[in-house]
Amino acid sequence: MSFVAIIGSGSLGGAIAHKLASRDRVREVRLIDTEERIAEGKALDIRQASPVDGFATRVVAAGSLAAVAGASAIVIADAATGQGEFSGEAGLALLRQIDAIEAAVPIVCAGASQRGLIARAVTELHFADSRIVGSAPLALESALRALAGLSIDVSGVDISLSVVGVPPDVAVVAWEEASAFAQPLVSQVPPHEIAALNARLPGLWPPGPYALASAAARITEGIVNGSRRRVSCFVAVGPMPVELGEDGVRSIIEPVLTRQERTRLENALAN
């Protein structure tokens, strides 16, 4: 068991802390924000929910970035002051400070707007490609799995699929390898339903804070616990399915795409 540091106690950061705690798979969650009183208030609210929700994860707050020292994973969320997700120059400066404290700990960017930050961390700060990932594509994948499940009257849990490309405009679903109950999904969902699901993709982005928090919690747990489960993430080369491990990304998995889907993906990555 280990602890996870969450940078930012805004609506997203607070939701991630609550989700991680309620899943009870890490020893401690540290909610870090320069507005320490706000972070402490949210941590207290989560701790008070533990008898009802039945979890033992310890949730604490800190006002200094030095509190990330020793973390098994660091999650970048949003500031308590309402400035939104950490991104751009402010996000890059934050990553630079983190790197000075912990030079190898895997980092999960939880926001929907942080794809560019991941790329800049690799190209400008020389982070290892495997060290930093974005969890937002998993939230999009989860929403799409739920909709696909509805189309054949099953739970989205029973659906397996991958989303690649650049949401919202060029998100590509690897329908050829998607499955339900270990059977090809394209044999169970008629073409017009798949076309309708493709048309709905732009409207599913950006996911809300609770969907983003759920995705970030699952990705973070995959890193902390060394899960080999395949998930959709932002990585330096673009949004791709990956396999996670304790050091971050173990491998990037090349999706099976039709020629048309491949062309759309290549155009998205080129732009």
Report on the structure:
This protein has 271 residues and is an alpha/beta fold. The protein has a domain at 3-134: NAD(P)-binding Rossmann-like Domain (Rossmann fold), CATH 3.40.50. Helices cover 40% and strands 21% of the residues. The protein contains eight helices and 14 strands. The protein has helices spanning 11-23, 36-53, 88-101, 115-123, 136-151, 191-200, 209-224, 259-270; strands spanning 3-7, 28-32, 58-62, 73-76, 107-109, 132-134, 159-160, 163-166, 170-173, 179-180, 183-184, 230-235, 238-245, 248-252. The strands form four sheets. A six-stranded parallel β-sheet has the order 3-2-1-4-5-6, with helices on both faces. Strands 7-10-11 form a three-stranded antiparallel β-sheet. α1 packs parallel to α2 (36-53) and α1 (11-23) crosses α7. The longest helix has 18 residues, at 36-53. The protein is globular.
If strands are numbered along the chain, what order do they take across the biggest sheet?
3-2-1-4-5-6
Radius of gyration: 18 Å
What is the terminal-to-terminal distance? 41 Å
* β-sheet strand percentage: 15-25%
CATH superfamily of one domain: NAD(P)-binding Rossmann-like Domain
Order of helices and strands: EHEHEEHEHEHEEEEEHHEEEH
Helix content: 25-40%
Strand segment tally: 14
- Give the biggest sheet: 6 strands, parallel
At the first level of CATH, the class of one domain is Alpha Beta
Mean pLDDT: 92
The CATH architecture classification of one domain is 3-Layer(aba) Sandwich
CATH topology of one domain: Rossmann fold
Low-confidence stretches: none
What overall form do the CA principal axes indicate? globular
How many distinct helices?
Answer: 8
- Structural category is alpha/beta
